[in-house]
User: Which sequence fits this backbone?
């Protein structure tokens, strides 16, 4: 068998060198995936990664206890199984014994405990998802067993674990720098800025801030076999300008685009026979959040009028590359069947009717200046703002778009006094569960800078429904019925404009026969590169690899 | 003595800029902490971070601490990329300098002869073309041109790489300017590689300045050509070549020199777009990102370093100006 | 030393300059300007000839033509002939025309503006001297200009020339930049430069107007002295009739592109024939006081000049006949006038 493959390889090599010009040829057996990122990679620390590029890198360098699946379930991963106590507050995880970190050290319970403590200690989004875990009661039962205790019952816990990347605790402690965390020093923050401590399918071979990163396949990876023809090396370049990135795609310098092209440019790829364009709905949910604590947005009729005045389909199809309309905070894909939700179709006549019902007179309404804070540098955000404010003016509201830096928006939204009347933002629903998305509409979710985006609205009935649902077994139909009820009550009072969840458009060279093809079950999980596959015999592949 | 006074002047300017920027970034609205800590930071974490960064202290105390740090070459930690700003700038500055200097060189090498030709062959085809060029070139859509050049030279013809500074391994680090380093270490492969990458961004960045230099040289040459000494030199039979290149150009170049002093900071500004489109790992892009992220130390640090270069370049152009024009030299 | 024989065809017997019935048009953006209508002028070896008239009459154009710095086009010779040193300039190859410049010394109007502010006097003089020795070849020039012996010889020559114009410390002046010299000093430097070729003819274009009165007088004396010592012929352009009387043997009066009258300076100014000359003479402020009378009207628009005598619209004695162009007639020996008041039919 082995002898055969060597002969075959030699024959293939002879053939290729016979037909190929005398230039340096890529090794067909070692395909390199080349792609661009439009945002800077400023950290490789799983606890601090925020943008899609950082997340994709972290996702490929680290593994988790559990792995999300496209159908929104989770499957055992480093943890081969787990037990849940009767009060649903204690989770005991049993680990596989064959998983290795990139330095060869086996993944053990100590590392899991270290990783959990680390995210709970460091500031960041991941810690937020896992905030119910009691940091002081993390037990290492034996090298293969770890136990977490929750402060309160949390139906999202297992799903939230998807975001807990497992780090090599021993390596990080050996490389800790001075810091504020006592015996843990800086918790390895400095080290993880540019280096990896993971066990994932790829390791970081080279990283230059501002330029790019090279990942290489980890040969000791056991959790899932690499696809035949999967990239053995991944080169991600920072290309801040998306049109440049598309040019590099066209030139064959990139194999796949990890960001959606703007709608008019999709056609360029669709019309080119060398490219395939995949599309799938994501769970990136877009909302226009309103500051309901200030007049006139404290009036439900004004909010309903505004919801009717929003031309959702233009926003979705002309500004974004298509999408699915949202009916409430939770997209249908996560909530399942739920009927009777109040919807606000684009209808200026209805908008005018609601304005007439408002407790404020038309003259009063004109007096309120309604600013739409548009994130500086984001063209679609601004376009959505113009679309909305234009229609609001037509129903007699004094609305206008104001460009504000993202950091300033985030800061303003943490307090109801400073929160803007309108902010457009999206939530990538990293925990695939209705509860986090709905919780922003209860007092518990107020004030977090992001992703709530400054929602200060509540309805005691919704809070009661949410509390009740959290006590039910996760995934039970009764639990989802309660969420459905909450969604209806929220939608009925229109505390935000529920816009849409968008569609991911992915141009790729056809020789990359398998790439991301649907939502991965959590944000960006469709980009595990060991599942990608090249047709290494395709002449375009051979030609492009050396570019 | 005069030199010493100039250096002192430069230091005062830098000190003033540092104070201005330091206060400005802190007075303007916006909180960097949220961005630095990432989404989902708790209030305690934010407070802890503020103390850690010294942001809880009064402004003047913060500024003095910053100045003390500067003396040790410590620019403070960037919030976007938690490393010392000085280190980041040191890494990224050579890329911007290489780009700007190459573009400036291109603009001068092409712009000056073009301006001379236009002036000496007034209303001829070169003059007409250069006047059109001056009009359109100054308002040239850099961004669009960059993408078009990428498509044509890069994607369609495969003549040049679309982005980046170098494909292969960079040359041994000496100055950080790849061309210079490659030359010094005799690594001609890396030199060719770096040069190929430089072509398109250099052209794009040079377009505007080139147009400005051409029109400046043209108009000051025309001014000079109308001066009596030119007619006199012609009347006594001096050759055209000597008149144009020895007498007139020397005088016309002084004003262009001042322009070049102005162009340098403008080009660093213009480098932002070019660095973005060509994924050029330079300091202009970093500075622009810093402003968006409200990264105090990075904004102040980048501004200071760019300011230092602007001050030095102005110093050099002024000295050259004086060397070229005896009238100013004699007045001192 | 510069060799005056390096251009063998320069004749020393023939008139230095002879313009005969010259007519020139200028093609401008607005149309054709008929600036020079009929210029007839002769300069014999060793004599200084004056050219007087209001500004805008074509004096400077004539000077520029003789200096070889009149751009052609836009200027076009329509009729007549131009001879210098016995050679017809029409059809002379440009190289030979340029070579003639070496024999022409130019003393310009504004001494402070014609010196290049960025170079020392030494550099400017040496450039000229070396160029005159280089046979009009740039390569030869650059080679010589960078040969130390040539340059130091040229420098000595420059110092010698400065001594000729009575500059006491030539070495000091050579090291200076033009701004460091006084106006009179600059004018003397220019005179020295004018001598650096092998001049046969000196063209002085109102050389004293930019100077103050005391310096004016000294410069005129120096000029006269130089012309006599070097045996030059001269064309002295001025609107100051007093100066013309002082240094010019003969004088031409020019109006709107026509030399309307000429003759020995003294008689010409004492008893002017042409109404225009009379007008000019009457415009000189007299010591008895009283405002000078000026000639009413102004120089015509060259785009559409009056037919016939161009002075007719301003002439107090104009009559029917003046619609036609008067011929130039010899009224007395060496005295010519172009006016219908004189000549066969009027007489």
Assistant:
């Amino acid at each position: 068998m082995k002898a055969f493959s060597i002969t075959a390889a030699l024959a293939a090599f002879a053939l290729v060198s016979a037909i190929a010009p005398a230039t340096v040829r890529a090794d067909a057996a070692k395909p390199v995936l080349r792609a661009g990122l439009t945002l800077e990679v400023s950290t490789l620390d799983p606890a601090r990664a925020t943008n899609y590029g950082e997340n994709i890198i972290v996702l490929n360098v680290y593994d988790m206890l559990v792995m999300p699946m496209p159908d929104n379930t989770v499957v055992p991963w480093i943890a081969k199984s787990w037990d849940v106590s009767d009060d649903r507050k204690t989770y005991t995880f049993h680990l596989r014994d064959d998983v290795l970190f990139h330095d060869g050290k086996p993944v053990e319970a100590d590392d899991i405990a270290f990783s959990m403590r680390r995210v709970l200690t460091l500031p960041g989004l991941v810690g937020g998802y896992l905030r119910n875990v009691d940091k002081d009661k993390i037990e290492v039962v034996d090298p293969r067993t770890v136990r977490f205790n929750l402060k309160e019952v949390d139906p999202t816990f297992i799903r939230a674990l998807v975001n807990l990347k497992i780090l090599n605790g021993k390596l990080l402690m050996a490389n800790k720098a001075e810091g504020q965390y006592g015996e843990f020093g800086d918790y390895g923050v400095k080290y993880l800025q540019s280096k990896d401590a993971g066990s994932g399918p790829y390791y970081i071979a080279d990283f230059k801030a501002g330029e790019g990163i090279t990942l290489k396949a980890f040969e000791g990876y056991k959790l899932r076999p690499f696809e035949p023809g999967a990239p053995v090396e991944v080169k991600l370049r920072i290309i801040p300008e998306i049109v440049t990135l598309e040019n590099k795609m066209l030139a064959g310098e990139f194999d796949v685009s990890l960001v959606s092209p703007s709608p008019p440019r999709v056609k360029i790829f669709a019309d080119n026979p060398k490219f395939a364009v995949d599309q799938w709905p994501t769970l990136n949910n877009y909302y226009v959040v309103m500051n309901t604590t200030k007049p006139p947005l404290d009036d439900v009729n004004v909010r309903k009028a505004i919801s009717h005045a929003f031309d959702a389909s233009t926003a979705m199809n002309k500004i974004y590359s298509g999408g699915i309309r949202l009916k409430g905070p939770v997209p249908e894909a996560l909530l399942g069947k739920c009927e009777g939700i109040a919807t606000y179709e684009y209808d200026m006549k209805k908008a005018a009717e609601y304005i007439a019902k408002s407790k404020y007179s038309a003259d009063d309404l004109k007096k309120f200046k309604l600013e739409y804070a548009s994130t500086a540098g984001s063209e679609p955000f601004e376009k959505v703002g113009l679309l909305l404010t234009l229609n609001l003016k037509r129903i007699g509201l004094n609305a206008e778009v104001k460009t504000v830096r993202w950091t300033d928006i985030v800061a303003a939204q943490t307090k109801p006094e400073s929160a803007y009347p309108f902010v457009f933002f999206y939530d990538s629903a990293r925990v695939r569960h209705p509860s986090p998305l709905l919780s922003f509409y209860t007092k518990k979710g107020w004030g977090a800078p992001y992703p709530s985006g400054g929602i200060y609205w509540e309805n005691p009935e919704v809070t009661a429904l949410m509390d009740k649902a959290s006590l039910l077994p996760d995934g039970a139909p009764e639990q989802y019925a309660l969420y459905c009820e909450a969604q209806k009550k929220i939608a009925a009072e229109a505390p935000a404009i529920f816009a849409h969840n968008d569609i991911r458009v992915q141009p790729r060279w056809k020789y990359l026969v398998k790439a991301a093809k649907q939502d991965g079950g959590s944000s960006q999980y469709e980009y595990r590169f060991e599942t990608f596959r090249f047709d290494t015999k395709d002449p375009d592949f051979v030609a492009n690899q050396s570019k | 003595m005069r030199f010493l006074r100039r250096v002192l002047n430069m230091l005062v300017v830098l000190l003033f800029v540092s104070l201005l920027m330091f206060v400005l970034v802190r007075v303007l609205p916006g909180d960097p902490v949220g961005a630095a800590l990432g989404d989902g930071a708790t209030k305690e974490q934010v407070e802890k971070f503020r103390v850690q960064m010294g942001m809880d202290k009064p402004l003047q105390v913060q500024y003095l601490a910053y100045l003390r740090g500067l003396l040790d070459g410590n620019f403070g930690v960037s919030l976007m990329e938690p490393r010392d700003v000085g280190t980041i700038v040191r890494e990224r500055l050579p890329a911007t300098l290489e780009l700007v200097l190459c573009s400036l060189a291109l603009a001068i090498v092409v712009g000056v002869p073009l301006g001379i030709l236009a002036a000496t062959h007034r209303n001829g085809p070169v003059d007409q073309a250069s006047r059109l060029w001056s009009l359109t070139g100054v308002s040239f859509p850099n961004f669009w041109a960059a993408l078009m050049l990428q498509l044509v030279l890069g994607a369609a013809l495969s003549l040049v790489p679309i982005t980046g500074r170098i494909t292969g391994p960079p040359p041994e680090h000496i100055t950080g300017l790849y061309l210079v380093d490659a030359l010094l270490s005799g690594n001609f492969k890396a030199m060719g590689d770096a040069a190929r990458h430089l072509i398109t961004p250099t052209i794009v960045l040079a377009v505007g300045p080139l147009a400005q230099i051409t029109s400046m040289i043209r108009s000051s040459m025309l001014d000079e050509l109308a001066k009596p000494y030119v007619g006199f030199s012609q009347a006594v039979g001096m050759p055209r070549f000597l008149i144009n290149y020895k007498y007139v150009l020397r005088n016309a170049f002084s004003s262009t020199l001042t322009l070049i002093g102005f162009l340098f900071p403008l080009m660093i500004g213009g480098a932002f777009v070019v660095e973005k489109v060509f994924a050029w790992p330079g300091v202009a892009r970093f500075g622009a990102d810093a402003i968006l992220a409200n990264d105090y130390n990075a904004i102040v640090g980048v501004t200071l370093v760019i300011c230092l270069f602007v001050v030095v370049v102005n110093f050099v152009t002024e000295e050259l100006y004086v060397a070229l024009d005896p009238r100013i030299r004699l007045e001192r | 030393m510069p060799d005056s024989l390096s251009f063998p065809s320069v004749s020393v017997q023939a008139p230095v300059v002879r313009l005969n019935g010259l007519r020139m048009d200028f093609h401008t953006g607005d149309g054709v300007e008929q600036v020079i209508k009929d210029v007839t002028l002769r300069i014999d070896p060793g004599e200084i000839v004056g050219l007087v008239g209001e500004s805008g009459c074509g004096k400077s154009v004539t000077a520029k033509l003789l200096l070889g710095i009149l751009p052609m086009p836009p200027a076009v010779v329509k009729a007549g002939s131009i001879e210098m040193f016995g050679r017809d300039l029409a059809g002379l190859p440009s190289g030979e025309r340029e070579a003639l410049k070496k024999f022409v010394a130019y003393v310009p109007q504004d001494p402070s503006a014609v010196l290049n502010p960025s170079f020392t006097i030494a550099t400017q003089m040496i450039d000229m001297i070396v160029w005159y020795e280089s046979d009009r070849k740039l390569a030869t020039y650059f080679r010589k200009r960078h040969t130390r012996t040539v340059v130091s010889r040229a420098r000595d020559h420059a110092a010698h020339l400065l001594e000729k114009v009575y500059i006491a410390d030539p070495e000091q002046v050579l090291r200076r930049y033009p701004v460091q010299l006084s106006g009179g000093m600059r004018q003397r430097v220019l005179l020295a430069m004018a001598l650096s070729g092998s001049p046969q003819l000196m063209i002085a274009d109102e050389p004293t107007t930019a100077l103050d009165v005391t310096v004016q007088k000294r410069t005129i004396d120096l000029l006269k002295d130089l012309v006599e010592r070097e045996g030059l012929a001269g064309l002295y352009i001025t609107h100051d009739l007093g100066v013309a009387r002082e240094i010019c043997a003969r004088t031409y009066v020019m109006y709107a592109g026509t030399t309307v009258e000429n003759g020995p300076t003294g008689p010409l100014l004492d008893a002017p024939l042409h109404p225009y000359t009379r007008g000019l003479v009457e415009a000189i402020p007299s010591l008895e006081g009283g405002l000078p009378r000026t000639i009413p009207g102004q120089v015509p628009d060259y785009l559409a000049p009056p037919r016939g005598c161009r002075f007719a619209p301003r002439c107090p004695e104009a009559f029917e006949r003046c619609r036609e162009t008067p011929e130039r007639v010899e009224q007395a020996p060496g005295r010519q006038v172009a006016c219908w008041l004189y000549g066969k039919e009027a007489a």
Summary: The CA atoms of residues 85 and 365 of chain A lie 55 Å apart. The mean pLDDT of chain A is 87. The longest helix of chain A spans residues 2-19. Chain A touches chain B through 46 residues (CB under 8 Å).
